[in-house]
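Worked Example 4.2. Read the sequence first, then its structure tokens.
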Amino acid sequence: MLSGWGVFPVPGSRVSSMITWGFAEGRALLSGRAFGERDLEITAQIGERLSLRVSNERINYSELRAFLPSLSFLPGDVNIIDGSPSVRRFFIDKLCALCSPLYARRLAEYRQLVRQRAALLRRNAQNTPLRASSIPTAQLGGWIRLVRQRAVDLLSKNLSVEKSSLENNLLPFDISVSVELRGGVGEKTGFGLEDYIEDLRSALDAGMERERHAGLVLAGPHRDDLVFSCLGRPAALVLSRGQKKRVVMAAILAAGRLIEVKLRVKPILILDDVAAELDADGRSLMGQALVETGWQVFAAGAENPFDTVNSTVWRVNDGKITE
């Protein structure tokens, strides 16, 4: 909440649903302090909406995320490897939103254009308004694809660096990450912004009849996917559950290194039950990897997740916190 991401992305999650204990007027105040590289006093007024302030000045989500870049791991995030494409898009969109201040706003604008085009398709609109809608959709979609591609290229590079930089290997095998375009030529070598825009516009115009039958916009960033490969094969097919979790954590660490370079500030990691389903060696490797980052890490679990030095352990029993 205090790092600019709002409530955790679970079905039905809303800011207003957090107020469940009969607070006066349905509002509550959450506050905290971050200090180290930056010293910030953050407050969040929680009601029907979330109002954020830093040092008593109003701030929006994107600005706060730039001040306090954070990455999280929730139990469902292991599905980045073998879940639906939307899970992987959410992962890369979070990374792009941290690295590019305009990304979140332009992604919201693009989604609005997709909804408008889908409404035209359901009304069986003529080709002229559909072709007209292709232009702004392709302009925003092409920009989003370019930002995503650059982030994925750096992520893939950092994954290989991640492997060589760790004293012990967190990744079980060689892993590569690439972008799969849904609607487009697929070959992206040397692509610039205008190439992405023209490629998507052509795909939208060429696929109008198929879109009419489907009633959906079939080409664009909202249907793209990330492909995790292991030794030339889909990672989802060849890795065990524990190995998938290690790959996801390696990807999060690689994303964190990218953020550290882009924003020149160390990210915060928020990890929930990350050590579950890992054997002793896996927990040890992950603990060492987290220590090597030099970042602030909050890790929750049913037991002490990692046996690492210079870490503090809090225990929660019967609603009380003890150190």
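Now turn to a second chain, presented in exactly the same format:
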Amino acid sequence: MKTNIDRWQELLNNITAKVEAQADKYTDKFPDIVEADGNCLLANASNWTTGFWPGMLLIAYKKTGNPKILDRLRNFEAIQNTMFSNLKELHHDVGFMWFLSSAEDYNYTGFEVARDNAMNAALILMSRFNPKGNFIRAWNNDEGSNVDKSGWAIIDCMLNIELLYWASKITGDPRFKHVANAHADSTLENFIRSDGTVKHVVCYNPETGDAVGNLEGQGYSTESSWTRGMGWAAYGFAKAYGYTGNAKYLEASQKVIDAFLRLLPDGEIPPCDFFQPDEPCYYDSSAGAIVACAMLENARRCPEKKEYYILEAQKLLNTLTDKCADLSPDTHGILRLATQAYHKARKNVTLVYGDYYYYEAVDKLVKILKEEEV
């Protein structure tokens, strides 16, 4: 009879086998979106999602030691690194792009080239910091547009700042973590509502630093709560606590998780936005995968709530596995029923970041259940 650990270990093995099977399918472009008909859309090096497939390859390499997987990882890192000659195309998501690939490659293998490239990305991310408002600017202005984005910040960046915490840890230079902490503090003040729901885009006056409004971003409205944004907040603040030990970050993570669980009916796939209308119904499995990671990070950091977060993470991962996961080695992508944004882009598809965080969450869960180092 299978134990709880055996069941999750089998799932982890199946995900790893699928990643290995897919490794030969992608060479010069990054898997990004799998449409409902199974067609995989590929991304160029400039896309913000390019760190997630290398991140999945690294997890698979840790599990298998397969040198072919490491070769594939390094190939994609080299493609990513071509973007350093095109800085105008880079943005706050250099955290996602280089932490999960190059920084984590260095953490595991000691590969110095990966370290240097991750540090280059950290310097770019730190250069986007506005000291007047204590926020990291999200995007550059679009060519030919009169929309000024110099004061725009987004909740997603709570996970990007892990690259800055890492840079301080690796170099011993505290400037990186000071910027990360300042951004986290500003995010806590201006993005997290009293009920634990989360704003997506906050607009600051870039000259005075005052928060002057917010935008709907990828959610339903400015006053709704985009579920993936709640995941970015919950996991980002949990990570910030892990690097700093600052209790207010852990409290923020748990406040957002509490709101997520309060709003999510048992056994349901998360919607794109908790306050979207009943119809049309758009799901976002990727939000569930990120929140599962956040809960398991809290299980590591908060011993008195460890069992609670493990249980809730398992419930969520069970739902995602039973209703969304495609583990066939012959198909592209894993986690179906994800949505890019409520009002635009693609609905109920497979997103590579949903796949990444699903893989990471199952890996975390197995390690926690086995009491191994995460």
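Notes for the reader: The first strand starts at residue 30 and ends at 34. The longest helix spans residues 4-22.
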